[in-house]
Amino acid sequence: MPKTTTWDERALLLLGVLTTQSQHGYQINDFIENRLCRVADMKKATAYAQLDRLHAAGMIEIEIAQVGNRPPRKVYSITEPGRALFHDLLATNLATVEAPAFAGDIGLMFMNHLPRAEAIAALRRRLAQLDTLIANQPMPPPHGGKLNLDLAVDHIVAVRRADRDWLATTIDRLEAEATLPNPHPQAAANPLS
Predict the structure, then answer these.
(1) Can you give the three-state secondary structure of 69-128, one letter per residue?
(2) pLDDT for res 185
(3) What is the pLDDT of residues 39-83, one digit of tens each?
(4) Domain contains 4
(5) Which of 48, 111, 161, 190 has an alpha carbon within 20 to 30 A of 69's alpha carbon?
(6) Residue 181: what pLDDT?
(7) Strand pairing partners for 78?
(8) Do 55 and 125 fall into the same domain?
(9) Which residues make beta-bridge pairs with 24?
(10) Same domain, residue pair 69 and 124
């Protein structure tokens, strides 16, 4: 029985980029890096590996093109099966609820291993970073066609604002509790125990 390939949002992104026109790898990576950088982070090596997987599965075609004295380049084009996969991945992605994972939550779990004032100071620095990110959120560059980058950026800003509001409330709560004795004094004295 042949192995079934599992596709994720990286395949959706690459197929989506190719739905508008055939492009060579540099154009695809440049578009992701310069236009979609606020909502997607994909390294070049990952993009090329995904393009190879999509090609092996028949979702995209590769044509070698050469202009003048330039070295030959691969030009990627979406196939009809690729368009069908794009459609399925898009509908699934829009309907999916993700369980967010934030690296900063690990620190929250072990926060009692620091003196309360030090933990609150660290959280205040995090709050200041969130305020800066929200205040300096750049507008997405102009785009046309069917790309709706504005909604994706709006979602990121809304999540950051919710995180900021939660963090401000949590800091207030921790400061109010700071007058109470530390329920884990041994943890602050020995963070490895």
Answers:
(1) CCCCEEEEEECHHHHHHHHHHHHHHHHCCCCCCCCHHHHHHCHHHCCHHHHHHHHHHHHH
(2) 54
(3) 777 888 898 999 999 999 999 999 998 888 888 899 999 999 999
(4) no
(5) 48
(6) 64
(7) 60
(8) no
(9) 75
(10) no
The domain boundary, picked from 77, 95, 113, lies at 95
Cα of 122 vs its chain's centroid, Å = 24
Among 95, 119, 142, the domain boundary falls at: 95
Rounded to the nearest 5°, which phi and psi values hold at 141?
A: -65, 160
> Between residues 118 and 145, which one has the greater pLDDT?
118
* The pair of three-digit structure tokens given for residue 166, joined into one six-digit string: 């939660």
Q: 53: buried, middle or exposed (CB in 10 Å: 19+, 13-18, 0-12)?
A: middle
pLDDT, position 75: 93
Contact 82, 59 (CB under 8 A): yes
Q: Structure tokens of 88?
A: 């399925």
Residue that has been written with the tokens 């070295």 in this structure: 71
CA 63 vs. chain centroid, Å, equals 30
> What's the pTM?
0.71
Q: Which structural domain range is residue 87 located in? A: 9-95
78 backbone φψ class: left, alpha, beta (φ>0; ψ -120 to 50): beta
Is the pLDDT at 188 greater than 60, yes or no?
A: no
- Does a structural domain hold residue 36? yes
Summary mean pLDDT of the chain: 84
Structure confidence at residue 130 as a pLDDT band (50, 70, 90): very high
* CATH code, domain with 38: 1.10.10.10
